[in-house]
Structure formats: C-alpha cells, structure tokens
Design goal:
Chain A: One of its GO terms (molecular function) is structural molecule activity. The complex is a heterodimer of chains A (192) and B (250). Chain A is α+β, with helices and mostly antiparallel strands and 192 residues long. Helices cover 39% and strands 18% of the residues of chain A. Chain A folds into 2 domains: 107 residues, "Winged helix" DNA-binding domain. Chain C. Domain 1 (Arc Repressor Mutant, subunit A, Orthogonal Bundle); 70 residues, Orthogonal Bundle (Arc Repressor Mutant, subunit A). In chain B, helix 1 packs antiparallel against helix 2 and helix 4 packs across helix 6. Classes of the chains: A alpha+beta (192), B mainly alpha (250).
Chain lengths: 192, 250
C-alpha cells in the first residue's frame, strides 16, 4: 500500500501523513513527536478554517459524531487520535499562540487562531469600511450576527475582542460602553 | 700501427667528438618521440572533442548511453571527472562536471528536506523519484546508477552520505553520519519486505532472533536514532514503522 493524500466527503484534502498508522500514537521519541505535533496542529488549523470551526474540545477526540471526525478518525486504517495525545498537541498550539485556552484556567477546550488576531483585525476593519459602518457605534452582536452574513459571522467574542484591541492600539478603533454591554467604533484613517 | 682509438691528446678529442654526436642523435630521437606523442595526444584530443560534441547531448539526456560511456571510461582507466584542470577537460568538454555537481546538490536537497520525516534514511527508489521531480522534464532521466556515482563524488565533503545495501536488491541512502549496526540493517530489510512495518514477532519468526534482541534493536531505532515510528493501535498490539521504507506519494 502507499501513503497518499485523500479528499474527505466535505472536500478537505488530508495530507499523506494522515494515512500513516503511527501518526495516531503519541511518540516516545521527542524529536519525532515534535514533527507529529507540528503536522497535527497544521492539520487542525487548516481543517478548522475549511469548516469554520472556532472551538476544539478534548471530548471531540473522545466521542464520534462531531465535526472533527474527518481528521481525528481514519476509518480506512482503523486508527484514531486519543484525547491524551490531543491534549499534548493543544498545549503546544497554545504555547505557539496558534490557540488559546477558553475559557481560561482550564485545559480541555481551546479557541483556534486559524487567523491571527492581527489578520482578524484587518478583516474586521475592511468589513466596517466596505459596509459603510465607519464612525458608527456597533455592539459586538452587530458584528457577530450581522444582517448580511460576513466573514465575521459567529466569530467568538474572545477572538473579536483581541482583533479590536489590535485596532485600538493603532487608533483605528475605540472601545465604547453601550447600554447592553460593550461596543466599538471604527475610526477612518485621516491624513493618508 | 694504429690502435683504433689511438693514443694521446688527439684520441681523447676524437672520443669526445663521438660522444657528442651520440648525444645529438639521442636528443634527436627523443625529440621525434616527443613530437610523435604530441601528435597522438592532439589526435586523441580532437577525437575526444569530436566525440564530446557529437554525443554530449546523448550523454546528458540518455541514461543508458551515459551508463555505457561511464563503463567505457572505467575499462580504459579514465575518470571522466578528473583531469589536470578544475573539473578536468573531459568534464569540461562534456559539461559532465556541472551535470554531476548539479545532481549532487539535488540529492543533498532531497535528503535534507526529507530528513525530518525519515530520520536521515531514504529508500533509493524514492530518492531517484524525488530528484527526478526536482529536475523536471527538461532535466532528462536520472537513474539509480547516476545517483550512486554522484554520491561518491560527495564523499570528499565528509557529509557522510552513504549507499547501504539492505538486502534483496534494495538500497537505501543514509545522509546522517550515524553508523547503522548489523541488527538495524536487518530491521530495515524486514521493514522493506513489509512495506515499512516491523514487529518483534516478525524479527523472531523470520530472522530467528530472541525476543530480547528484537526488542533492543527496535527500541534503539525508535528512541536513540529516531529512524522509526511507534504504532500502539496495531491490530497485533504494538508495531514499528520505518518511514523510509513506506511508499509515500506526494
């Protein structure tokens, strides 16, 4: 048999290492595990982006029937990723700022940064600009549940807040207290 | 009565005279020989230049022709890469020097870029495939023979590239200066037979090893050398996978 890429029913292209039996075992050789961890985190982020998944929990590797089955289970070779292995991978991703434990102070659930907060900030600012919402006060809800679906639909508030903070630092946004919580105002760039 | 050489001062002069003419004759003779050799060399060079210009493309493009050419050079004791000048004039005229060095660089490229995955051990077939892919269609066909020859030219660099015979006609190229012991070579050979998978039981039944020996060899390859991967979900319990013996398609 040979090890090749494979396209899942949802149209995601799995790398050839996903067909390797040993990829699902936590390696005792540190160097080998580092390679596996890197491949897993790349795979997780690419898949999350493909399916627009923001959250990953350890249980997703425990039970089947969730959106992660396509990558955590390989029925063609009868292998699966176990939660303790996933936990190790998540820890590494958090240490490399590719994910963040959310809620904080636990280690069984993360938010995935398949776009960095800086990249989300650009998306956010362009969205506000193109929809003519510069200088208006928006609630977080206006952004995460827009009338016209956008790239930001359903974005977790924790990620949104990071993106806004990036913009605040460069004076392109302002955090504002509104009646039912927090709001934001995007500021048009002047003098350029 | 005269003795042949005579006596006295006159005889001495006569002897000197004849010695001189002998020397002159000898000089003349060697000069002719040298000239003759020069002529031969010039002829040889011309023939070579003719050969090179006629066959250069065939040598670079056609692996079978190249192989025959290399063999011909070997039988007459000429190294097509060696010579008085840098690269040698064979190499220069055939552009074979560049060709070989270029191939060497590509081999190093493939070995280094796959080292993470295979621990510095690559199967010859895969190496040839990947080098060919790197060269593209325009680069012509490269054979196992070319790769082996090129690896030999890498030797003076001391990078430790070596071609290993792992049995049943299979070869591997090692690009890390790690000595493989005999047991590891056996494990590699079994992995080759099994598409990359090795277990303690396979080593015990096929090679009549003791369980201790099998375990030690596999553990060393796994932990010390990073030359194989562990699979704890194997249907038979635990297995080891040698990535360089697995067939990757990318």
């Amino acid at each position: 048999m040979s090890y090749s890429t494979h396209t899942t029913p949802s149209g995601f292209l799995l790398p050839s290492i996903h067909a390797a039996q040993a990829f699902y075992t936590k390696q005792r050789n540190q160097q080998t595990q580092a390679i596996f961890t890197e491949n897993w985190s790349r795979l997780i982020l690419a898949y999350a982006r493909h399916k627009r998944l923001f959250t990953l929990r350890l249980e997703d590797a425990e039970t089947s029937g969730n959106p992660w089955d396509e990558i955590f289970r390989n029925t063609r070779i009868n292998r699966r990723l176990f939660p303790n292995h996933l936990s190790h991978i998540l820890q590494d991703m958090v240490s490399k700022n590719l994910a963040v434990y959310d809620p904080p102070k636990q280690t069984s659930s993360v938010l995935l940064f398949w776009r960095t907060p800086e990249e989300w900030a650009d998306v956010l600012y362009e969205w506000a600009d193109s929809t003519g919402l510069m200088n208006s006060i928006l609630t977080f809800y206006d952004i995460t549940e827009p009338v016209v679906p956008s790239q930001l639909s359903d974005i977790p508030v924790a990620i949104l807040r990071r993106a806004i903070n990036v913009l605040v630092k460069v004076n392109r946004a302002q955090l504002i207290a509104v009646a039912d919580g927090e709001g934001v105002r995007f500021l048009a760039q002047t003098g350029r | 009565m005269h003795r042949l050489g005579g006596v006295g001062l006159a005889a001495f002069e006569r002897q000197q005279q004849s010695q001189k003419s002998f020397a002159e004759l000898s000089n003349e003779l060697s000069q002719t020989q040298v000239n003759h050799l020069h002529d031969q060399l010039a002829q040889f060079r011309n023939a070579l230049i003719r050969f090179a210009s006629t066959h250069r493309d065939s040598i670079r493009r056609d692996p079978k022709f190249r192989h025959e050419f290399q063999r011909m050079c070997a039988t007459i004791g000429v190294d097509p890469l060696a010579g008085p000048r840098k690269g040698g004039w064979w190499a220069e005229m055939l552009n074979l020097g560049d060709w070989n060095y270029e191939l060497g660089v590509q081999i190093v490229d493939v070995c280094v870029s796959t080292r993470e995955r295979n621990g510095g051990l690559i199967e010859m077939g895969e190496l040839v495939r990947m080098v060919s892919k790197l060269r593209g269609v325009a680069g012509g066909v490269v054979t196992e023979d070319d790769v082996i020859r090129s690896i030999k030219t890498l030797k003076p660099l001391g990078a430790g590239y070596e071609v290993l015979d792992v049995g049943s006609g299979k070869k591997m190229v090692r690009s890390v200066p790690k000595e493989l012991d005999e047991d590891q070579s056996v494990v590699l050979a079994v992995a080759q037979e099994e598409g990359g998978r090795v277990t303690e039981d396979l080593l015990i039944s096929r090679r009549r090893w003791t369980p201790e020996r099998a375990r030690a060899a596999l553990e060393n390859m796994l932990l010390r050398d990073g030359l194989c991967w562990l699979d704890e979900q194997d249907e038979e319990g635990v297995s080891y996978w040698v990535p360089s013996a697995m067939r990757w398609e990318e």
